[in-house]
Design brief:
139 residues; mainly alpha
Length: 139
């Protein structure tokens, strides 16, 4: 509507004041924090959220518990692997995987031929495969 649609200036101003006030109230009710802009970085939303000390402590305890459980499971698995191998096979696998040595370096360190080191490692892997069928743990 325009000014010409009203009979007088007073009537126009009365309806304009009402309309402006109604518009302002309607806009104010529906307005959120980011209605007039988009954050450039989604992490901005989290800036105001400060976790409690208790929440931080619980998170750290959960992580420590999960880490301790993982360490226990790893230790158990290494012990199971060690029990299904000879001492020599275990030592050579340890050099191969934990110390990242190649078969030639293992053979030189052990004073054996490369073929002997390779056969020993292959036999160890075969024993592990038999002890842990289908990649699962034997418990």
């Amino acid at each position: 509507m325009t000014r010409e649609d009203f009979v007088s200036e007073e009537e126009f101003l009365r309806w304009k004041v009402w309309s402006d006030g109604d518009y302002y109230d309607t806009e104010k009710d529906g307005r959120g924090f980011y209605d007039n802009g988009i954050p450039l970085d989604p992490r901005v939303d989290k800036l105001g959220a400060v976790p409690s000390v208790e929440a931080d402590i619980l998170t750290m305890l959960d992580a420590a518990e999960a880490s301790a459980e993982q360490a226990r499971r790893t230790t158990d698995l290494i012990e199971q692997i060690k029990n299904c191998l000879t001492g020599t096979q275990y030592r050579r696998l340890w050099m191969l995987y934990a110390r990242k040595m190649n078969v030639t370096a293992i053979a030189k360190a052990e004073g054996i031929s490369k073929a002997s080191a390779s056969r020993s490692i292959s036999a160890a892997l075969k024993n592990i495969s038999a002890f842990f069928p289908e990649g699962g743990e034997n418990r």
